[in-house]
Write the structure tokens for this entry.
Amino acid sequence: MSQNAPAADDIKFAYWVPNVSGGLVVSKIEQRTDWSLEYNQKLARTAEAAGFEYALSQIRFTAGYGAQYQHESVSFSQALLHATEKLKVIAAILPGPWHPAVVAKQLATIDHISNGRIAINVVSGWFKDEFTSIGEPWLEHDERYRRSNEFIRAIRGIWTEDDFTFKGDFYRFNNYTLSPKPVQKPHPEIFQGGSSRAARDNAASVSDWYFTNGNTVDNLKSQIDDIRAKAAQNNHSVRIGVNAFVIARDTEEEARAVLDDIVRHAHVEAVQAFGHAAKEAGKASPEGEGNWAKSTFEDLVQYNDGFRTNLIGTPLQIAQRIVALKAIGVDLVLAGFLHFIEEVEYFGKKVLPLVRELEREREAQPA
Ligand SMILES: Cc1cc2nc3c(=O)[nH]c(=O)nc-3n(C[C@H](O)[C@H](O)[C@H](O)COP(=O)(O)O)c2cc1C
């Protein structure tokens, strides 16, 4: 058991699986990472030994900007489960190309094979060209989330009920009984992400976990307060995961210099192409609060605004900021790194023990 393994109320850690080529920053800077299976299996073993509880795989059906090669998320997640013993792997699923009956069946089998370590991240889609290039209809922003809402309810129903019947606008089931049901009870965890009103409303009503892009503590707090208030009205409980691109170095100057280098070497055309597609998706949310709606060029160099969370500095600075995130209601930090294996190791050795120490100190303080 890793010394960094979380107690029940401890903040949890996930890392982004680099199953897509080019790393997590759209920059020509050297990134010691790789999208291959061999690299990823080693990374998964390193992460579980370092105290990471989850790994999140990504789904892309096509490139369009950088990210030229993309391994499929469910099959890749399964390979990572085979290489590990405790790590939970969250496979990204895109409603549209995937039907909930296929996902429920496939993931129930993987749950058995992995002894209860699979989870899903239902992504609602932001990349129009991806959908049109595989002949999938491209729904309006809020319609995509209405479909995801039905998708999640359908999967949960199939996983937990016999004779499941569902009459939605997107999916229909008639007395369907999945057998065997998943090992995990009540069912494998269902993550779902975004920032827009529609994404938050799904978090407040159907998902187990809400993933959001990197952001400042103030902006994250208002999102979390909004979701928790709505979830309480719905008698629903949801946990919160936040993206962060972590640059931990022995000195703050070194860490800041790495960020400057990443941005200075940004692959300008690829960032612009990604930004164009992403902003269109962000603007498409009627209230204009979607992911990337307010992202600057620098923010977009990291796919999910991970610099904004500011986990950039010394291990102590980063641990203090993580504990500050916990104080506003964050349950999990989803971390990306420049040089994955070596930085995951450093994070496990230098940052995570400090986080656990600070958590114990806070618990010891009188309420
Ligand atoms: C942590 C996280 C992981 C995501 N992973 C993927 C992914 O693998 N594939 C994908 O197409 N979209 C992914 N997304 C995109 C979201 O599902 C969603 O489509 C996007 O954030 C648009 O959000 P909006 O409604 O706030 O505009 C991810 C988003 C977040 C926050």
User: Anything to note?
Assistant: The mean pLDDT is 94.
